[in-house]
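During the practical work, I worked with a single protein chain and the C-alpha cells that describe its fold, as given directly below.
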Amino acid sequence: MNVKEAIEKRREITNFLDKEIPKDILENVLDAAYKAPAGNNLLSREFILVTKRENLDLLSSATPFVPWLKKAKAAIVVTGRPDISKYWVQDGSIASGYLWLAAVENGLGAAFGAIYHATDKQESEKRESYVKKTLQVPDDRRILSIIGFGYPDQNLKPKKMLPRDSVVYYETF
C-alpha cells in the first residue's frame, strides 16, 4: 500500500476484533512515529507503547471520549517535551499522523484520543495527570494523545468529504 492509499483508506476505528497484534507490526508503527519529522530535528516527542489489558482499561477513563480503549489491543501514548521545543504539540501531532498511516498500512484500525486540551487548562491538567499517574510518566512531560489500535471489526465506507474546492485555494484565499 502506498501513502496515498493509506490516506484514502484511513478512518477512525473504535471497534476492534479480539485478535492480538504481532510485535513486529507494533514496532513498525512505532518506527513510523520515531522517524516523523520534528522542528529543527529537536525530538520533543516520545512514545509509550501500551499492550497490557489492565493499562488499556485504565487509560479508557482518561477522558469520556476514549472508552474504545477497552476494546483496543494496543495504544501509543504521545508525550511532549516543552523543555526541548516550543513546537512539541506540532511535533507530536505530525508523529501521530505518521502512526495512524502506518497502522492503516499494516491492516490495523486506529482512533485518536486527545489528552492535551489547548483551550481548557484545567481539563488538560486533569487528563494529563491521570495518564501520567497511570503510566508513571515524569512530571516534565506533557501528554498530547493516545492512539488506540486493533484489527477493525468492520470495513467502513470512505468518509464523505467537503468539496475539495471549498477548502483548497491557489496563490490567494
Q: What stands out?
A: The chain has a mean pLDDT of 93. The first strand starts at residue 45 and ends at 50.
